[in-house]
């Protein structure tokens, strides 16, 4: 007779809410923001930008989540009683990885923006840009409690750890590792993947815009010269 083993769901996008609860439906989507940032944001960034600041930002989030898993396995604090309805009782809840991820992201993004690294934000919209990551971080923290995945203490522990690790990682990257960026650019990895650092450029968008226009005009001029000579 065949032995039946209990099934376990892949929880990457497995978020439940009560049917008919519009706020719960909204918060379920908010709870998926870390997935959207990871798969949509950083993967797209690597494909289209290849910025070393972005790569180290993503690496820091991975390290943060690894630390979160180590702490969860060490502390082994259970999730709230609602975990039975959510089929999540086989995993630990302290600290909340969602809260830790979002507050790490908010802190690192804030420090990048305030320091003007990369030059992607105009001064007039800088503070408006900072509102989005912090509001999403708070909403994500609230969603994990509202939906029954974590206790209040667990999400606050995740938020505190995320803030701490985000600040430490920013200091480490931009005070200790930053001097190695030129070496990475010139390495086999940097040359193969076109990895670059534009932290020294005050306005990256304008720089790329001006260079793209200059390249287009130069190409048009060469074509015109070639057509005349032929």
TrEMBL record:
Query: Which terms does the UniProt entry file under GO BP?
Result: lipid biosynthetic process; protein N-linked glycosylation
Tagged with keyword Glycosyltransferase: no
**Could you tell me where this protein is found in the cell?**
Membrane
> Would I find Metal-binding among this entry's keywords?
no
Q: CDD domains this protein is in?
A: PAP2_dolichyldiphosphatase
Q: Which residues cross the membrane?
A: 26-48, 101-121, 127-145, 152-172
A single MF term (Gene Ontology): dolichyldiphosphatase activity
Q: Where is the Phosphatidic acid phosphatase type 2/haloperoxidase domain?
A: 52-170
Sorted alphabetically, which Pfam families does this protein's record hold?
PAP2
UniProt membrane topology term: Multi-pass membrane protein
UniProt name for this protein: Lipid phosphate phosphatase gamma, chloroplastic
UniProt lineage:
Eukaryota, Viridiplantae, Streptophyta, Embryophyta, Tracheophyta
């Amino acid at each position: 007779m065949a032995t039946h083993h209990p099934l376990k769901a892949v929880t990457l996008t497995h978020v439940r809410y009560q049917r008919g609860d519009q706020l719960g439906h909204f918060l379920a989507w908010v709870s998926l923001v870390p997935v959207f940032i990871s798969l949509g944001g950083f993967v797209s960034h690597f494909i289209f930008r290849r910025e070393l600041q972005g790569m180290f930002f993503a690496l820091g989030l991975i390290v943060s989540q690894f630390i979160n898993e180590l702490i969860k396995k060490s502390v082994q604090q259970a999730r709230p009683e609602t975990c039975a309805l959510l089929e999540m009782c086989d995993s630990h809840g302290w600290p909340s990885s969602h809260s830790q991820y979002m507050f790490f992201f908010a802190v690192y993004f804030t420090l990048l923006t305030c320091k003007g690294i990369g030059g992607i934000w105009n001064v007039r919209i800088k503070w408006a840009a900072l509102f989005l990551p912090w509001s999403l971080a708070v909403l994500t923290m609230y969603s994990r409690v509202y939906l029954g995945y974590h206790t209040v203490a667990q999400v606050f522990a995740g938020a505190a750890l995320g803030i701490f690790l985000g600040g430490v990682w920013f200091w480490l990257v931009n005070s200790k590792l930053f001097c190695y960026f030129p070496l990475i650019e010139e390495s086999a990895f940097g040359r193969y993947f076109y990895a670059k650092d534009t932290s020294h450029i005050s306005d990256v968008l304008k720089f790329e815009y001006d260079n793209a226009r200059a390249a287009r005009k130069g190409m048009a001029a060469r074509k015109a010269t070639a057509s005349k000579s032929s």
